Amino acid sequence: MGKIEIIRKILVFANIPFIQNIILTVSTIVFFYILGGLINRIVNREVHDVARKYRLRKITYHTNIFIILFFVFIIWIHKISTVTTVIAFTSVGIIYVLQDLILSIAGWAFIMIRAPYSTGDRIEISNIKGDILDIRLFQTVLMEVGNWVGGDQSTGRVISFPNSFAFKHMVFNYSTGFPFIWNEIKAQVTYESNWKKAEEIILNIVNEQAEGIENKVKPLIKEMANKYLIQYSKLTPITYINIKDSGVEITLRYLTEIKDRRNSEDFITRTMLEAFTKEEDIDFAYPTIRYYQ
To answer: How far apart, in whole angstroms, are the C-alpha atoms of residue 228 and residue 251?
Structure first.
């Protein structure tokens, strides 16, 4: 009888709602923790793209948190009427007080699903330009480029902005699908200079520097054409001529990789300076004042 009484008391104790809720809560947490670990193992094994692997692991982690919180909430609220009452009284206050927080979570979901940008991309949003370092639940972290530093190079500052910016501001993505940009270099030569020779020199320099880029760009253009209405009829470097007050302006337009813009511009400018120095019939133009008597 003693043993039966002890067992009966244990069963009665186990039927206490508080104890049941604790057991269910712990079981839920453990279950989804193990499930998340299994999903991450599959992702690590099957997905080889680093950026995609990172994004899937983030989605798994945050989805697990949401599901666990939802089930724990259900476990500890016994009556549906109570749930309805709690939601009715608190939803308006929560939406008003935490509207930015809620928008940031919604922005995170939008970024994960629609991918207007991902880690490693160079973007500009709300006059902030930089390379994405991390996409968290509430905010995006990037390494700033530009600002007081020329040539789209890093300033060294790490900037965080809420994910709600994805809804409130235009996002300029330099990287997605087409990691090249058009860059321009301007040079002015005097009216007395042989500007046609100068133009030919510039084109020879950039064609040597940009060799092989066209072969990289063509397949990307075809891939983007399947998603967007985009057409480029000319991918090779081109020059434009304009008449300015001080001389003839030669504008070079060429494709370069996003993060190599300054290096390519430096190479072309240095080589152009050295080439023009060797030519007796080419001189750079600059503002001058002439007096006639």
So the answer is: 29
Q: pLDDT for 229-277, tens place per residue?
A: 566 666 778 899 999 888 899 999 888 887 788 888 888 899 999 999 8
Task: Find the CATH number of the domain harbouring 193.
Answer: 3.30.70.100
Distance (Å, whole) CA 66 – CA 64:
5
List C-alpha distances in Å: 272 to 148, 181, 278, 291.
26, 21, 10, 31
Examine the domain organization and report whether 67 and 155 are in the same domain. Answer: no
- DSSP-derived 3-state class of residue 20: helix
pLDDT, tens digit, for every residue of 60-104? 887 888 888 777 777 766 554 555 555 555 565 556 556 777 788
Identify whether the C-beta of residue 108 lies closer than 8 Å to the C-beta of residue 55.
no
pTM of the predicted model over 0.70: no
Q: How many CB atoms lie within 10 A of CB 145?
A: 22
What is the Cα–Cα distance from 87 to 6, expressed in whole angstroms? 42
Element (H, E) at 123: strand 122-125
> Could you give phi then psi for residue 133, rounded to 5 degrees?
-95, -40
